[in-house]
Structures are given as C-alpha cells and as structure tokens.
Specification:
Blueprint (H helix, E strand, L loop, with lengths): L1 H20 L1 H23 L4 H17 L4 H9 L2 H7 L2 H31 L6 H26 L5 H29 L6 H28 L1
Length: 222
C-alpha cells in the first residue's frame, strides 16, 4: 500500500509542476503543429508511399516527446530535490511514479498528434483496435526508455545532447515496429503480419519496463 501511495504522490508532484509551468505542453504543441505543417506540404509536393505515412507520425511523436520527457528528472536536479528524493525514498516507487507520469504524458501527445494527423492527411482508420494498441504500447515503450535515460543524464551538464544520443538507438526498433502496426491500423493488415508485429511491440514495452525498473535501482544507489 505504501508503494502505491508513494508512486501516486510522485506522479501528482510531476503533474502539478507541469500544469504550473506548462513548459512541456507549450513546447510539444508548437513542435507538433510545425511538424505536421511541414509533413502536409511535403506530402503535397511528393506523393509518399503509405508505409512512409504510417511511420512519419511516430517520428513526430518521438521528437516531440524527447523535448519534454527528460524533465521528469531534470526538474528534480534544477530544484535541488534529486538528492533529497534519494535519501528519503526507495527506488521502485520513484521509478513507477515517474514512469506513470511519462506514460500518460506520452499517450496524450500521441492521441493529440494522431487526431491532427488523421484530420490533416484525410486518412481513414481501417483497424481501430490495432491503432489503439499501437498508441498504448508505443507510448509505454517510449516512456519506459525515456524515464530510465532521463535518470542517467539528469545531473549531466550536457544532458540534452546525451539523452538524444542514447535514446535514438534504443528507440529505432520501436519506431520500426510501430510503423508496421500503425500501417495495419490505417490501411489494413494486407500480409497478415500485424499480429506478429503487435506481439513484438508488447514484448518491447514489457522488456523495457522490466529492464528499466531493475536498472533504476543501480542508478538510484549511485
């Protein structure tokens, strides 16, 4: 019971900070709108294949999320509360609370981006369930990787650059899988491979959450 209470308090604290500052929200809104306008003009100038259209949305979500997700731990360092948390709280509830916040934040960004993407490009969803599962587990995979890496680079002077360099190689497999599952959601499962891709997506999300929770113990003790 104490574990869940502490995790929930960490989640609420991060949520209040974001609502108060609106740094991540404003940054992501501006980025997503600008990126979608560029994509719209690019698609008008050059007829991209359907596979590329299903992957572009996750490229936008990836870079939009990378602008805000590291702040889950960076804000602790900036406010001088990082060491205080380490002295007073155990690692598991802190990681869970941060992960929950990052997951819900990423999911909200994904849904917002998807709605605008579908509207601006005029795409009709053929398999809504596949698309919903892609958003859910894709957001979880992004959040779990970002939460662990943010804790690693939080106290570095070059944390923004280091976070990007470390996260992109880890997230490329996720983006490739999501491109396939999103394609199936947009245009249908034409080669009957969506089930395998969905299982790979669920496995990636589960593996990164598990690995993150285990590795975070070592990060927290350093």
């Amino acid at each position: 019971m104490q574990f869940f209470r502490t995790s929930y308090q960490i989640f609420l604290k991060d949520l209040r900070i974001e609502v108060r500052s609106r740094y991540g929200i404003n940054t992501i809104l501006a980025f997503v709108l600008a990126a979608l306008m560029v994509v719209l003009f690019a698609l008008k100038a050059e007829n991209l294949q359907m596979e590329a259209r299903s992957g572009l949305i996750w490229i936008i979500i990836l870079f939009a999320s990378m602008a805000a997700l590291p702040r889950s731990f960076v804000s602790e360092t900036d406010q001088g509360t990082f060491d205080l948390l380490r002295l007073t709280l155990a690692a598991p509830p802190v990681f869970t609370g941060k992960l929950l916040y990052n997951f819900l934040f990423t999911l909200a960004v994904s849904v917002f981006t998807l709605v605008l993407y579908l509207f601006m490009l005029g795409i009709s969803v053929v398999q809504p369930l596949t698309l919903m599962l892609s958003l859910l587990f894709g957001s979880l995979g992004l959040a779990s990787v970002s939460t662990l890496l943010a804790s690693l680079v939080a106290q570095s002077s070059q944390r923004g650059a280091i976070f990007s360099v470390m996260s992109i190689p880890l997230l490329i497999p996720l983006i490739l899988i999501l491109s396939n599952t999103t394609y199936a959601g947009f245009f249908g499962d034409q080669d009957a491979g969506a089930i395998n891709d969905m299982m790979a997506l669920i496995g990636y999300a589960g593996a990164t959450v598990t690995a993150g929770s285990l590795l975070f113990d070592f990060v927290w003790e350093e």
